[in-house]
Specification:
This protein is mainly α. Helix content is about 60%, strand content about 0%. Helix 5 runs antiparallel to helix 6.
Length: about 200
């Protein structure tokens, strides 16, 4: 009755087995989950150990993730994989606009080679050749304007037929910008042949 409380607690601690709140398990019994492979356990430990502790580490990881994403985008631009394309190239409307441009000859795609030829002709010190170069500039510009207007009208009509009720905003400008590039240099790479109806 008058014993110290500390002695009572010590005696109780000696008598009671030490448990951490979990029921004891037979060492031979299955543990209810598969043992992880060594490679998995190591990768989990590494991921915990490699958590960014500083701002510098976080920025480094972010740069690495961005590099991987850019590589995926580059491969998508070369192969046409819709999942990793940049936002400006995604969607069925943009794909149709690309196919529409790639399926036909465009005067604008020959502008750069023609510009080089015209520039060389204009540098020659012969009056007749310089006059021809000036006339060629005018003819090329007029052809590009007429071809672009005809493409715009046809593409708008085809977009209205193919995607009724959907937003096709920006698709015509996107197609015209694509038509200015030489076919070989276009990104994403052309997926249709010339003359093939998209």
């Amino acid at each position: 009755m008058f014993r110290s409380r500390a002695k009572d607690e010590k005696a109780a601690a000696v008598q009671a087995p030490v448990t951490d709140g979990k029921p004891s398990r037979d060492p031979q019994a299955p543990k209810g989950r598969p043992t992880p492979k060594r490679s998995q356990a190591q990768s989990q430990r590494r991921s915990v150990a490699n958590t960014p502790l500083t701002r510098k580490d976080a920025a480094k990881r972010q740069r690495e993730a961005r590099r991987v994403q850019m590589e995926k985008q580059r491969q998508a631009l070369a192969g046409g994989d819709e999942r990793y394309l940049p936002a400006r190239d995604k969607g069925p409307v943009r794909r149709f606009a690309r196919d529409f441009v790639d399926s036909r000859f465009n005067v604008a795609e020959f502008f750069l080679p023609l510009a080089v030829v015209i520039l060389v002709l204009s540098m020659v010190r012969v009056g007749a050749l310089q006059s021809i170069a000036l006339l060629l500039w005018l003819v090329v510009i007029i052809l590009i304007v007429f071809d672009s207007l005809a493409s715009t009208v046809r593409l708008r009509k085809r977009l209205a037929e193919r995607f009724p009720g959907e937003s096709t905003r920006g698709a015509v400008a996107y197609a015209l910008m694509r038509s200015l590039q030489m076919r070989r240099l276009r990104m994403p790479k052309p997926q249709v042949k010339r003359g093939e109806r998209p």
